[in-house]
Write a structure and sequence with these properties.
The protein is α+β, with helices and mostly antiparallel strands. It has 16 helices and 33 strands. It folds into three domains: 195 residues, Galactose-binding domain-like (Jelly Rolls, Sandwich), CATH 2.60.120; 122 residues, Jelly Rolls (Sandwich); 388 residues, Glycosyltransferase, CATH 1.50.10. Helix content is 24%, strand content 26%. The two termini are 45 Å apart. GO terms for molecular function: alpha-L-rhamnosidase activity.
């Protein structure tokens, strides 16, 4: 496929955005940010054409229309060297004769976690492929394009500079731009892009599922229109209204209501969802492009008292009227019936539901940490989200794309980046050491040795990268090049006694500390397990490192691990990874397990995944189940008390200064419940591909779970004291 761009972009030399996090960035040379472009071409369709498929890609993004009908959007964010195109079946959208193919292109231009933007590339590539009746020979038609910059959109960046607000001027919007009859003769011609470093490949995941539903808003006494969508979603708000040209509506979206029951649009997560819509005469449409995470909507007409006398004289005092409200939800395709907890304790069912919702709306074209503030695919978050999402969808295509994209980040640093793809360069040591967990997860679900073999060198090179920080006994010391996270936020680190780096001003204490070494030993153990599966000799010995770790951090009197060599404090985090990776001395296992299970979670929601699974691995199932359902301030029941419809970024809204209310890294209950309590373990070495070893608590009288694994449908049911597995 050939790439086309605007004339002003054709002469730009793109910037290389890849760099180590602490290295200076190149200065962006491009003509602007937040650029919307409307592009059109035509295609003549005949009845003897079969299986018409449009191959299409754009940088940063496209929305595709054929003859005025929305078709799809994409591609998934990707590194330029492995850029994606989509194959879109379009026969159902075509009519005999001339057809209009229209594309709304977007170049964000900001350096952030969303796209590989800020590099000066704005481009479109597309071709039609079909076969003629009675022929298997593939026919291809390339296109020439006309385009126009769209000036209807304006607004400031919000969140972590991840989204431009979409103030929208309907007077500058051409309603019929995507239909065949529209006259585009005065539009400029797009020109070939001269960039040679794109390497296109078919997107390995499905396009987003886009669903619309009409909303009937409530008209309030203050003149506003208000709607509660019933729960947090990821999507966009489409509107129609009537009023005089120049009159304005203020659109507020949010995850919560304030004390006056108005929408809290200045959200606690750091996004400010207030946008201004300027109407034209007659009926106007509000047409957003980007998406938000929100539950509530409130629309205010402009106060007449704020309108100038001259505008009043021209009739602008006329109050606009809202005619239609439509919500367009978006997420990676997920059949709600693939994985269903049909019968269980009510609180457990609600916990399962909020975790399922967060994974649904947080899995877009990648595993997002959240669909609001950051909109990026973080490696540590993905370890939990991918595990949940594989169960909820019965598929591993998104997991494999995630594995591959973080592997691609090795070109920037062999120790991997914390976010991939994206032009925001961020490095977190803890997350890099967990990448091999994703590779092992894929093997457990698929049994695909060749896929593991392909990515084994990445797991090997991660260890080689961290080896440069080894001291005399093999433990890591002063890993300053990447952020040592331990847990997030800081107030959920259980008092971990270590001076850790600050995001803005990294400062590291020189002592060797616990968590990064436990994760390092775990990564080496995982590498050895991968090598065993591949029939390779073990490249590293992890036992000497275990012994050094015990000498450095173990307190034989307490039978707990300390946070660092110089500390007497034992945080949960100094013990959980030691138990998870089975490096706790046998005499201390019970003490460590009791320590992890005491009270409620003394950690963040991400770390809770390892707490639950570590306890289960040591067969403390009842303790883990009690933690799952604990009613303290640190647990999923607390999220429910605070009105969660998706699991939160922290245990409660006020436990982090900028908590997002849709964060799938808190979805640990899904894999824990299915694998550790219900007892269905994907096990490629087993003849059936799984083992069934249920450990549901005795006081859980009724339990019914249905799910799909490797294309087969299963049911786990408990009645009274017996738990049985059935293939449906």
């Amino acid at each position: 496929m050939k790439w086309f761009t605007l004339q002003e972009y054709s002469k730009i030399k793109p910037v290389n955005v890849y760099k180590k996090e602490k290295d200076p960035a190149e200065i962006y040379p491009g003509p602007g940010k937040n650029i919307h472009v409307l592009a059109r071409t035509s295609f003549t369709y005949r009845k003897d054409m079969k299986s018409c498929t449009l191959r299409i890609s754009a940088d940063d993004y496209y929305k595709l229309y054929i003859n005025g009908r929305f078709v799809t959007q994409g591609p998934a964010p990707a590194y330029t060297e492995h850029y994606y195109y989509n194959e879109v079946p379009v026969s159902l959208f075509l009519k005999e004769g001339e057809n209009c193919i229209a594309v709304h292109l977007y170049y964000q231009g900001a350096v952030n976690r969303v796209w590989n933007s800020g590099d000066g590339r704005l481009a479109l590539a597309a071709e039609m492929v079909w076969k003629e009746t009675d022929s298997e020979e593939e026919q291809i038609q390339e296109f020439s394009w006309r385009c126009r910059r769209c000036l209807a959109y304006s607004g400031e960046l919000t969140g972590y500079d991840t989204q431009f607000l979409e103030n929208f001027d309907s007077r500058l919007w051409e309603e019929e731009w995507n239909v065949p009859s529209f006259d585009d003769s005065c539009w400029e011609k797009m020109v070939p892009a001269g960039w040679a470093d794109y390497a296109l490949q078919k997107q390995p995941t499905e396009n987003l599922c886009i669903k619309e539903r009409c909303i009937q808003p409530e008209k309030r006494a203050d003149g506003s229109w208000f709607a509660d969508l019933g729960g947090e979603i990821t999507g966009s708000l489409f509107l129609k209204a009537t009023g005089a040209a120049g009159s304005r509506l203020f659109i507020h979206c949010g995850e919560e209501l304030d004390e006056q029951e108005n929408v809290r649009y200045d959200m606690r997560c750091g996004c400010r969802y207030e946008e201004i819509w300027i109407l034209k005469d007659g009926v106007s449409s509000y047409v957003p492009y980007d998406y938000k995470g929100f539950r509530y909507v409130q629309i205010f007409p402009e106060n007449v008292d704020n309108i100038s006398d001259s505008d009043k004289a021209r009739g602008k005092m006329q109050t606009p009227q809202l005619l239609e409200m439509t919500v367009q939800e978006r997420h990676y395709p997920m059949n709600e019936n693939t994985c269903v907890l049909k019968e269980a304790d009510e609180e457990l069912k609600r916990i399962f539901t909020i975790c399922k919702n967060a994974v649904k709306y947080g899995t877009q074209e990648g595993y997002l940490d959240c669909p609001t503030r950051e909109k990026g695919q973080y490696l540590g978050d993905a370890v939990v989200t991918a595990h949940s999402q594989a169960w909820l969808t019965g598929k591993t295509d998104m997991l494999r794309k995630c594995i591959d994209q973080f592997a691609q980040s090795a070109k920037i640093c062999p120790g991997l980046m914390a976010v991939a793809p994206g032009s925001q360069m961020q490095e977190i040591a803890d997350f890099s050491l967990l990448w091999s967990q994703l590779l092992l997860l894929d093997y457990r679900f698929t049994g695909d040795v060749e896929f593991m073999r392909r990515y084994y060198p990445v797991a090997y090179d991660i260890i080689r990268y961290f080896e440069k920080y080894q001291r005399y006994d093999g433990l890591l010391d002063r890993v300053w090049e990447k952020w040592n996270l331990v847990d997030w936020p800081e107030n959920l680190r259980d008092g971990y006694d270590m001076v850790l780096d600050d995001i803005e001003d990294p400062v590291m204490a020189p002592e060797c500390h616990n968590v990064i070494n436990a994760l390092y030993i775990g990564a080496i153990k995982t590498l050895s397990e991968i090598e065993n599966i591949l029939g390779l000799e073990n490249s590293r010995e992890w036992e000497p490192l275990r012994d050094a770790y015990v000498r450095a951090f173990y307190d034989p009197e307490k039978k707990l691990f300390r946070d660092s060599e110089k500390s007497e404090h034992s945080a949960l985090h100094a013990n959980v990874y030691a138990l998870y990776f089975d490096i706790v001395p046998p005499e201390a296992v019970e003490t460590v397990a009791n320590f992890l299970a005491s009270e409620d979670f003394r950690c963040g929601v991400h770390c809770s995944y390892f707490v639950l699974r570590a306890l289960a691995q040591k067969e403390y199932y009842d303790k883990a189940a009690a933690l799952l359902l604990n009613k303290g301030e640190h647990g999923w029941i607390n999220m429910l008390r605070e009105g969660a419809t998706c699991c939160f970024e922290a245990w409660g809204k006020d436990q982090k200064w900028n908590t997002s209310l849709c964060h799938p890294w808190a979805s640990a209950p899904i894999p824990f419940l299915i694998e550790n309590l219900a007892g269905f373990h994907p096990t490629p070495d087993a003849e059936s591909g799984y083992l069934f070893e249920p450990h549901l608590p005795d006081d859980w009288k009724n339990f019914l779970l249905e799910f799909t694994f490797q294309g087969e449908r299963y049911q786990i049911k408990k009645q009274g004291g017996a738990t049985r597995l059935k293939r449906l």
